[in-house]
Design a protein that fits this description.
By secondary structure, the chain is α/β, with parallel strands linked by helices. It folds into two domains: 8-52; 82-250, Nucleotidyltransferase, domain 5 (2-Layer Sandwich), CATH 3.30.420. The protein has nine helices and five strands. The protein has helices at 6-19, 27-36, 43-52, 122-137, 156-159, 161-170, 186-200, 208-225, 236-250, and strands spanning 82-92, 96-105, 111-117, 149-151, 173-174. The chain has a five-stranded mixed sheet with strand order 3-2-1-4-5. α4 runs parallel beside α6. The radius of gyration is 25 Å and the shape is elongated.
């Protein structure tokens, strides 16, 4: 017996979905239910027909941001006015996979804080922010970072209640990147790419603690020697020092 026509298969799929207690069943589950009923059909054909007729599982629709929602710039005109933070993962021989958290200054591209932990919790995500606030403001306390914009992606660590309480206490202003538009957090993303190529993708360390120490060493080396093209190939530490002197003279 040959394969059934498309219209007959679509009718059967509609009846299967209407009778299913789970409206979010994927194409393979629908294909399996049809096969358990004694009818054989290729899984790709089931998926193709569900796409054509719209029979796919319900999905959340993103809010429209308009064309090119990330137009503009995320590079401010002064140091320590906008920062960015991000998180990635790494591997160690003894501790397995761990988390790497960083924070940077958008103007100078300097790494202001870094941390390595076994788990990427909100506490690990806060550590580079605390380091950055101490470096930029000279201390750590309530409202000490008032007016500083902080860019981050919509990850669960950065949306947690504890993390938001911390930045409110410090006086930071959130500037979250839009969902599925990583360009909005591009400065932190670019530093993570540099970090991977120069440290994280090299032979792994034995422990997370060894990785943490290496991360801080790389942060110092990067800030003092990495050349930033948009600043005339100057190192981030030099850019920060020069502009701080300029701002102090203007004041």
């Amino acid at each position: 017996m040959g394969p059934c026509p498309d219209d007959e298969l679509v009718d059967h799929l509609q009846r299967l979905l209407a009778a299913s207690p789970c409206p979010g069943a994927g194409d393979r589950k629908v294909w399996a239910r049809r096969r358990h009923g004694g009818s054989r059909t290729a899984p790709r054909r089931v998926l193709r027909l569900r796409r054509i007729h719209p029979l796919l599982a319900p999905t959340r629709q993103d809010q429209p941001h308009g064309p090119k929602a990330h137009d503009g710039t995320i590079s401010p005109e002064q140091v320590e006015t906008m920062g960015g933070t991000d998180m990635t993962t790494t591997y160690t021989r003894e501790d397995g996979q761990g988390a790497i958290c960083i924070a940077g200054d958008h103007y100078s591209a300097a790494c202001m804080g870094s941390h390595a932990a076994k788990q990427g919790t909100r506490f690990a995500a806060l550590e580079p922010i605390r380091q950055g606030v101490r470096t930029a403001c000279g201390a750590f306390g309530p409202d000490i970072a008032h007016g500083l914009l902080l860019r981050h992606d919509p990850g669960s660590q950065y949306m947690s209640h504890g993390w938001q309480e911390e930045w409110r206490c410090l006086g930071l202003t959130r500037a979250p990147a839009l969902v599925r538009e990583p360009e909005g957090n591009g400065c932190a993303e670019r530093f993570v790419r540099t970090l991977k190529a120069n440290l994280l993708w090299l032979p792994p360390f034995d422990t997370v603690e060894a990785r943490r120490l290496a991360l801080h060493a790389f942060q110092r080396q990067y800030n003092e020697t990495w050349l930033i093209g948009r600043h005339g190939y100057k190192a981030p530490a030099q850019v920060r020092q020069e502009q701080r002197c300029t701002l102090a003279e203007a004041a």
